[in-house]
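Appendix B: a complete holo record

For completeness, this appendix reproduces one full record from the ligand-bound portion of the collection. The bound molecule is zinc ion. The inputs are the chain sequence and the ligand SMILES; the output is the full three-dimensional arrangement of the complex, encoded as structure tokens. No fields have been trimmed.
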Amino acid sequence: MKKLFFTLIIFLPSLATFGKTPLFKVIARSDSHRAVEENVQLKDLISSNSFDGKYFKVVRGKDEDAVRFDASDDLVFKAANVYYHLTKARDYFTNQLKSDYVTNLPKMIIRIEHKNQFSELGHFAHDNLDPQFNNALTVPAGKGLASRNIKPWGIEIWFRPQKKIHISELNANNLQSQEFKVLMRGFRNQIHMQSLQRFLAQSVNILVNGSQGGRGFSLDQVIRTAGSSLIMEFGYQFYDPIAKATSRKNYWLDTAMVPEIIYHEFAHAALSDHLVLSRSTAIIEGMADFFAGQIAGSPKLAKRIKKYNTFNGKNAKRKQDYILQFEMSEYANTDFVFGLLWEMKSILGEKKGESFMFELRKRLTTDGTIRKDLVDGLITTCEESCETPFQDKLSILKALNYRGL
Ligand SMILES: [Zn+2]
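The structure of the chain with zinc ion bound, as generated:
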């Protein structure tokens, strides 16, 4: 034992000195969920001077080559951060959930600081067409267009640059000069359950294009941009220690720096064997949020969701209750699905609930409805995989009933 200890002491510093496995600064969460910097080693890199790995290649914008280790500090920080958290997310799906689909996913290109919109035919829309900020999205693979020299591409994840928006420009006068929490509450009430990310992206578009209408902000531009406001607020609120200060008047979302957003985006790719990446719906976003929450594994997040699930607001409409309008609206219901799936997990038990939700994706489609497909999916999945189907089904039905379903 003594000898082994001695050997380790000799070897560890020499590895570090040779720089074979350099350490990179990334964002981690403290126990209280604050964003803290941590130095980590990156797994599965195949390049010794750039972020090119076995499963992910991190590039800047439309570049083909990976971001180099000697690029600017800011770019290296971002590239290392997405690489590290994507590796964690991939490990979760391959090791914990034993997903063959994820194990066999082709290597993914990850774009950071990428402003172009997605084009299903052309891969990248024209540079001048509404450049994007403050959001992230996962794009489906495409065949390319040989006649226009556009090569085929695989599933990719895109992280936009951040852009600061002054609070006075958020087009919400009543929110001015209020504290962050109050702002969030106002944001939630005003926008209902639209995600914070969309809210900020939209605000930038209002600034750039002058109006909320027209081509400033359309559904096409936000396909599959991340998640519910629950998980976004959670990632956002604690990202920047200054965010809590009342003096902060600028808002932005640097998606490549928020672990929960990175997990959410990878979850879209991991679930895409059944939940195709066509557009953003309550079911596809709620499922991605669920697994982002699992990967994050944060007791604070669990508490937050629990509070959301049981909170009985003074507003006329409890957002935790199902209302038929949910099915019609594009954005309004992701939190509802997320909260519901989280509750189901606790009914079925932590471990069992997780594999249950992974099975559930087979019974769902991207365009499914909450009232029919999600409810049917939960029941059928239980019939097939619950340990005590009769009892568990009763508990599920009871919970659904309580939610107004
Ligand atoms: Zn999403």
